[in-house]
Design a protein that fits this description.
- This protein is of the alpha/beta class.
- Helices cover 52% and strands 10% of the residues.
- Helix 3 packs across helix 7.
- The protein is globular and about 45 Å long.
- About 10% of the residues have low confidence.
Length: 211
């Protein structure tokens, strides 16, 4: 069985798909917090990683790169050290066996591994995304849910661009693109599980005609 690395639009259900796959396949699941905990086990010193996590300040990392100042080198050295710790943690965990990795540029970090399926989960129906965010997150209006969606996506896009120099939504970066406006979370999970169990890996995009 292959590992799977998932990038996802906020509110697309990508995290839920990852959890469902890990449970069904009985393999480990790693998102931001769990990766931090795992890094400690490898003795990697990334105590300030939480401050720079994709969910909080992806845009801040991008802005740092654009800054000019006397302490820019010091800031960049620290940030590079933090990302190196995350990168090595993801690679070490994958070397231990199949697992599900959520975000944190894991799709690019593991891209060269033949035993990894990289996937981008999107939802082309924005109102469906907003409704899912309203139902699952701590927001009390649809307007706040929409603002949260835009802010989270912007941060993730900048985080990905900062480290990979690539477009987060570019379908060419992934083996699969799944649209939860067209398929249920259960169907998306089944598609991924099937690919994880395939021997050959080809780059395709799932759409209505493919399912």
């Amino acid at each position: 069985m292959k590992s799977v690395a998932i990038e996802r639009e906020f509110g697309s259900g990508g995290r839920d798909i990852g959890i469902r796959i890990a449970k069904e396949a009985q393999i480990p699941y790693y998102d931001g917090q769990l990766l931090i905990e795992a890094a400690k086990g490898y003795g990697i010193e990334i105590a300030t990683l939480k401050e720079f996590d994709e969910n909080k300040v992806g845009s801040f990392l991008y802005n740092i790169a654009m800054m000019a100042g006397y302490n820019q080198y010091e800031n960049m050295a620290k940030i590079n050290e933090i990302f190196y710790g995350m990168k090595e943690t993801i690679k070490n965990l994958h070397a231990e066996g199949p697992a599900v990795f959520i975000g944190r540029c894991s799709t690019e970090i593991l891209k060269s591994c033949e035993d990894v399926v990289t996937v981008f989960v999107r939802c082309s129906d924005k109102e469906k995304r907003v409704q899912r965010i309203f139902d699952k997150e701590n927001v009390d209006t649809m307007q706040k849910a929409r603002r949260l969606m835009d802010r989270k996506d912007w941060g993730r896009e900048k985080y990905f661009k900062f480290w990979t120099k690539k477009d987060w939504k570019d379908e060419k970066n992934y083996d699969l693109v799944l649209d939860t406006a067209k398929f249920s979370l259960e169907e998306c999970s089944e598609i991924l599980l099937k690919r994880m169990n395939e021997q050959a890996l080809e780059s395709i995009i799932i759409n209505d005609a493919d399912f």
